[in-house]
Amino acid sequence: PVFRATTTAPVNIAVIKYWGKRDTTLNLPTNSSLSVTLSQKSLRTLTTASCSPSYPTEDTLNLNGRPQEIQSSKRTLACISSLRTLRKSLEDADSSLPKLSSYPLRIVSENNFPTAAGLASSAAGFAALVRAVADLYQLPQSPRELSRIARQGSGSACRSLMGGYVAWRTGELADGTDSLAEEVAPASHWPEMRAIVLVVSAEKKDVSSTEGMQTTVATSELFAQRVSSVVPERMTAIEEAIRDKDFPKFAEITMRDSNTFHATCLDSWPPIFYMNDVSRAAVRLVHDINNAVGRTVAAYTYDAGPNSVIYYEEKDTELVAGTIKSILGATAGGWDGPFYEPLANVT
Ligand code: DP6
């Protein structure tokens, strides 16, 4: 027999950025972070996990049609081994269950967007992997408990197991058991929220997040302040903004946190650059739109790459998405599209 489960996981885009690890093996962050889960209509990973006693002995992983070196990916191995251990304990407690934990696994995963282009593909990827294997193994663990496993695959992945507004609490314990994701508000709390993704470049990024954040932790002088006071204050403030559906407040914190994160990258030694001229043109345009309208209607944020994600409310779609498309779309030699327009929060 072949046992099988298929699932999808969404992309999440942080508004308070995770940048820095206090433990690289357990993948524990130096600060809490908060993200918005995007709609799976535009951006998602689709993963099928199967297992069978008749499969060849090794676990395999295929990503976007290409076999991956699973044995050299400590992170993938860590996720699989944690999930297997949970399945094994179910089988030990109930001898009538099929011994799935002893069968080789086959994982097949596909993104509908460019991988490693600063579009949080690792987040959706590891979240889908963990969810698919957990479903295959019929594990009773909650998304919050599974976030502990997904975190070991990629930090940001722990936030893609839930919808809506999700916080990843840094936690205090050395073993990381309290470093978990939790839903701050469901998608339905703020259904007017929208996001547009401007794909400035779909190429692979120069410096991976993992490597970049290690350089920042080791060398940036601004970083300590970000971790000790800037982020904790912003976490509290943005959670209030979300609770009150206060878009201008949400937007200012989001833009400032993106800017602080990229400032610590520039302050790293040697400096790290993720944004480019087109990214900066989009930043200026968002400020221009907000100034022209006389209220804050749009907020940009950038991950470890040049692509912009711009948040706005549904009523301002024409003003924000319309203006950005017509102006940046007409800029010669810069932006080469496409635009993704996921409705934030609708899964
Ligand atoms: C800038 O989650 O990709 O997108 O844990 O090393 O896999 P690893 O890092 P990753 O880093 C994401 C960094 C970020 C900010 C964020 O998503 O919070």
Automatic annotation (TrEMBL):
Name of one Pfam family that matches: MVD-like_N
Keyword Lipid biosynthesis: yes
Keywords attached to this entry: ATP-binding, Lipid biosynthesis, Lipid metabolism, Lyase, Nucleotide-binding, Steroid biosynthesis, Steroid metabolism, Sterol biosynthesis, Sterol metabolism
SUPFAM superfamilies: GHMP Kinase, C-terminal domain, Ribosomal protein S5 domain 2-like
Residue ranges occupied by any Mvd1 C-terminal domain in the UniProt entry: 195-347
Top-rank EC class of the record's enzyme: lyase
Gene Ontology MF terms in the entry: ATP binding; diphosphomevalonate decarboxylase activity
GO cellular component, one term: cytosol
InterPro entries to which the protein is assigned, alphabetical: GHMP_kinase_C_sf, Mev_decarb, Mev_diP_decarb, MVD-like_N, Mvd1_C, Ribosomal_Su5_D2-typ_SF, Ribsml_uS5_D2-typ_fold_subgr
Annotated ranges, domain Diphosphomevalonate decarboxylase-like N-terminal: 9-181
Catalysed reaction equations from the record: (R)-5-diphosphomevalonate + ATP = isopentenyl diphosphate + ADP + phosphate + CO2
UniProt KW Acetylation keyword: no
GO biological process: isopentenyl diphosphate biosynthetic process, mevalonate pathway; sterol biosynthetic process
Superkingdom field: Eukaryota
Pathway as given in its UniProt record: Isoprenoid biosynthesis; isopentenyl diphosphate biosynthesis via mevalonate pathway; isopentenyl diphosphate from (R)-mevalonate: step 3/3
EC number: 4.1.1.33
Family the entry assigns: Belongs to the diphosphomevalonate decarboxylase family.
NCBIfam families xrefs: mevDPdecarb (TIGR01240)
Protein name in the entry: Diphosphomevalonate decarboxylase
Native source species: Penicillium frequentans
